[in-house]
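Hey, I was hoping to borrow your eyes for a little while. I've been staring at a protein lately and its backbone has me curious. You're getting the sequence in one-letter code plus the fold written as tokens. Would you mind checking whether the tokens look sensible for this chain? Here's the protein in full, and shout if anything looks odd to you:
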Amino acid sequence: QVQLVESGGGLVQPGASLTLSCAPSGADFSKDAMGWFRQRPGKERKFVAVISWNGETAFYADSVEGRFTITRDITNSTVYLQMNSLKPEDTAVYYCASRILNIFDGTYRRIDTYQYWGQGTQVTVSS
């Protein structure tokens, strides 16, 4: 059974940091790109960050560039999202996802290009 299990969400104050993890299992994800998306209440799910299969290249949404960092453990394909300087507008359910396409074809922001999804983890930024 293929699973992507996110963890690390929680309630933090503005300006704080949080690290999310995504542990894939049940298939070989070593050649998959891995991405993070988020969904705010009443809004559509949106791209946050993506990392290449070898961990060497990453792309970010403009809203998180410079504050969030995506990394990857290539030994087990676990993916992390380090989130710094969190803002209330970062409040959302965060999802990780995998895609077999590389990240250089310009489609990595599209939800329909990802094959497997986790169940999501809630991040709340509030004072």
User: Anything to note?
Assistant: The radius of gyration is 13 Å.
